[in-house]
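Could you please consider the sequence and fold following this short note?
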Amino acid sequence: MDSQCESRTTGVLQQRLSRLILGAQTSLIIGVLANGIAVLLGATVGITAGYFGGWIGGILMRFTDLMMAFPALLLAIVLLALAFNLLGDALRDTLDPRLKGRH
């Protein structure tokens, strides 16, 4: 095997590896930030419910139970349907400009 062919192969592999590392870095940052926000919100709700107790704690815990029981995909579908109903044509035209003017 000559060195020119070997260096070409190494260059291609290095490009693929660098793209993989860059994509993984972005995914890891998003994952860590999302989990950090979830922990912060969860700790805030839990501390508030524990500190105040009574009916405030009861309401916060029922809200938490509701969020835990609701599947994430179903929640996303419901929120998207609500957004379409509330924003109507403007949202549809933004998402798919080919439908502009059609009802």
Q: What stands out?
A: DSSP finds four helices and no strands in the chain. The chain has a mean pLDDT of 81. Residues 1-54 form one domain.
